[in-house]
Structure formats: C-alpha cells, structure tokens
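Dear support,

Our group has been running a series of protein-ligand predictions, and this particular one with magnesium ion is the one our PI (initials K.S.) wants archived with full inputs and outputs. We had some confusion internally about which version of the output was final, so please treat the block below as the authoritative record. The input we submitted was:
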Amino acid sequence: MIKDGKIWIANNQEGKSVYMLPSMANRHGLIAGATGTGKTVTLKVLAETFSDMGVPVFLADVKGDVAGILNPGIDSEDMQKRIDKFEIRDKGFAYNGYPVTFWDIYGQKGIQLRTTVSEMGPLLLSRILGLNELQRNILGIVFKIADDEKLALIDLKDLKAMLNYVSENNKEYAADYGAMSKVTIGAIQRAVVSLEISGGEKFFGEPALDIRDWFTVSPEGKGMIHVLDSESLIGNGTLYSTFLLWMMSELFEIMPEVGDLDKPKMVFFFDEAHLLFKDTPKPLLEKIEQVVKLIRSKGVGIYFVTQNPRDIPDGVLAQLGNKVQHALRAYTPSDQKAVKAAADSFRENPEFKTFDVIQSLGTGEALVSFLDEGGIPSVVEKVNILPPKSFIGAIDDGTRQRAINSSLLFTKYANAYDPESAYELLERLGIQKEREEALAKEEALQAKENAKKEAALAKERERQEKLEAANKKRVAKSVGNSVAGTVGREVGKQVGKPFGRFGKTLGGNLGASLGRGILSTLFKG
Ligand SMILES: Nc1ncnc2c1ncn2[C@@H]1O[C@H](COP(=O)(O)OP(=O)(O)OP(=O)(O)O)[C@@H](O)[C@H]1O
Ligand SMILES: [Mg+2]
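Confirmed final output from the archive:
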C-alpha cells in the first residue's frame, strides 16, 4: 500500500509501519524463503503498490497463482483477521483487481511473446541450444557473416538456412572468418531442430516484442502489470532463464540513462531465480552481473525471488539493496550454512539473533532490510507482511482469455508474419544459382551440338569437293580422250600418208594415244 508516498509493505513487532522507499526501489531486491512461507504474496503486495504508484511491473508466473492479481481479493476469515491486525480498513485498504496483460512464449495463456534470433544474439541463443564453447564461437561467426551479408535472422527457419549456407560455403569464408567445420555446424543445426520440436520456434519471429510497449499505465493511471505465464516454460529451465536474461539485456539496451528518480520506471520480478544462474557459462554470468549493476541508473529495479539466497551468485547478491527473507528451515549442516549466509547478509539487530529468527518465522512473517535515503541498508527487522488487495490464487481460463482479448496489445502481436529475411534471400539465391547452372548446362549442350553440326558440314563439304574433283577429272579425261584422239589421229594420218593406207591408220592410232597422254598430264597438274 502507499502511505506518505512510500511503499508500505509490513509492520514490525511494535506495530509500526515498515517502508521501502520508491526512490531506492531501483536498487534491486531479493525475496527469499522456503516453499509456502509467503514469497508470492510479498511479491504481489509490492507489485500492487508499484502499480498504484503508476509504475509498470513485470512478473513471471511460475505456478499460475500470480495471475490472481487481475481480480479483487476475497474477504475470507483469514484476510479479515490480517486486515484487523494491521488496522488498515480505514487506511485505504480495499480489495482490488489490477490491470494485467498476460504473455506467453507458447502463445496459449497470454499474448504471443516473440523476439528475433538476431535480437536474442549468439551468446544467449547458445545457452538455449546447449552449445559448447566451440559451437558457441562458430554460432557467433555465423551471426557475423549474416550481419556482413545483410541477411536478417528473424526466425529459426532463417537460422537453419544460414547455417546450411555457411556449411556449404565454409571454404570460401575460411580466409576471412576462420575455419568452420561442417561437423560443428551440423551439431548446431541439430540443436536448432530440437529447439524447434520442443515448441521454441513460436518464440522467434515477427512481430517481435517491443519492450517499450510495457511502459504503460492504465486509463486510471495504474502501472500495467505484465504477467508472463511460465507454468509450461519452467519445464524448460534454460529457455525460461535465458528469456529473462534477454529481457534484461534488451531493457538495458533501449533504456536511456536517467540517474536518480523519485520512483522507478519499471520493476521486474524474476521468480525461480536460481534457474538464471544454474549452469550459466562464465561470460554470461559476467554479463548478468554487469547489467544488474548498470540497469539501476536507467530506472529499472530487478527483484529476484528464490528459496535460498545462496542461489544467487555473490556478485549479484551484493547489489540487491532491498531484502525480504521469509522462513528458512535448517535440517542439515548444508541448510544451516545457507541460513547462516542469509543471516550474515543482514545488518545485526541487537534485539534478536537473526540466525535463530529466520528459522522460526511463520507464514507471512519475514526479516526485512531496506535502503534508507542515503542508500544504507536498515538494521534487520522482524515484520508481518501486509495482505494483498488482489485475489490470492489462480484464475479460470475464461477470465484469462477475456483479459487477453481485451488487451490493447493483443491486435499488435496476435498474428505472426514472415518478413523477407535470410531464408527467403538464400532460397532466392539458391534458385538463381540453380537457374544459372541450368542455363550454363544448356549453353554447353548447344555448343556441343553446334560443333557436331559444324563438323558434319565440313565433312560434307569435303566430300562434295572430292566428288567435284573426281567429276572434273572424269570429264577432263573423256574430253581429253576424244579431243586428243581426234587431233593425234589427224596428225598421224598426215605423218603416215607417204606410207599408203596402212601407214595412215597406224599413224592415226599412235597420234591418238600420244594426244591422250599429253592432255591427261595437263589436267592432273
Ligand atoms: N502476507 C500474507 N497475507 C495473507 N496471506 C498470506 C501472506 N503470506 C502468505 N500468506 C498465505 O500463505 C500461503 C502461501 O504463501 P505463498 O504462496 O506466498 O508462498 P510461497 O513462498 O510463494 O510458496 P512457494 O515457494 O510454494 O511458491 C498463501 O496462499 C496465503 O494463503
Ligand atoms: Mg510462490
């Protein structure tokens, strides 16, 4: 609840109000405690107050019980007791539902939430795909080539086409980008296919979420509460946590520096936060740490919700200024260590032993420490958390669907579209290549045909020439025979004349043979 412009979250043992300062809400926070101790209710009390202040909120709903924030709470006996205890009835407490936009990366229990492959980036995508270091490096190069070649990576289809293209042309790219083995690319391709099969393909595409759409208030001036349905998503812990990390880095990129504000621009609650850090490669851990550190100057507060504070790496934990610790049980030495670590993270209160109190807290009770105006953590206090104004528990499908359909963002994100990107461009390139190859083949065939025809024609020409030559020879021979015969015969007759009739005939025949010999030599030459 808002009281004196502050976030009234609990009362201490003397019945005095305990506040979190809105101006310090961007210094992040932690809500920890064993199962069933009141973490989700605390988260709701905080989220409601932020919304009442006009600050938009994001919540991951892992068990479906956050969704109830849409409806006003029910005046049960337990609630009445709590309301009486806090004497809040006359201090503005009223059961209230909140403006909620439901989101779902599977598009079933909320508006379809998408991002693009390139916005996800190779580092986070490698995590979703479960790639090893070598594969992660290769994926990074594939992204670089796509970038250099102006091939947009929107959906998994684009990524598959791109991997295929690089695999086929790996030799050409080796000189500029380094060697990429087909085997490694093949392993990445298989990981992409299995992500596709597990339903991940709906998450990548257009229209991709513009996170600026989350910075909205309702017509009544309440901060919009964005609930990501995570009941199915949590089944794929890596996808869930990587999605949250993507959101953080996306926010980090788009938000301008704003310095200190009197209230945050937006607040994010990450439930089951231990998943964010489980099996996270070092470069990614470093990135998370850096983003958490720097994002507060952009007016964004991040609250991690988890069972045990030890789930959060020290580098991140040290940056969580506002803490709500619900009960922890310590049955084993390892549990005891965890409780000790949690207790040690608070400033001692001389009134009690933190280590002992953590273990004795009842449901809805907590140990808290918030940052004061100077950014100094308060001494730890034992408190009772206020009851929420909204409904504690899940909602039915009909109520959810009505809320989804009536959301202003529903029409913007409901229908997927497939823009021209790597897949389409590479396919076209492939078709063009195929066409060029077919054309070249046809041309080669035609050239071969032409050469064949040419050869046949040349042969025919030669044959004709030979034939002509033979004909000419024959004609010349017969003409020569008769001309020479006649001429020779005449000459012979004249030569043999003095030898009477016999001499004339002999002279004629000899003359004819002689004449034929002379002409045939002439034609041959
Ligand atoms: N501040 C509170 N005001 C009213 N009821 C509360 C409060 N805190 C806890 N409760 C009651 O305790 C129940 C369990 O709390 P909650 O669901 O917040 O636990 P949790 O720590 O989130 O558990 P889990 O780890 O299983 O998610 C609630 O359903 C509610 O009935
Ligand atoms: Mg819970």
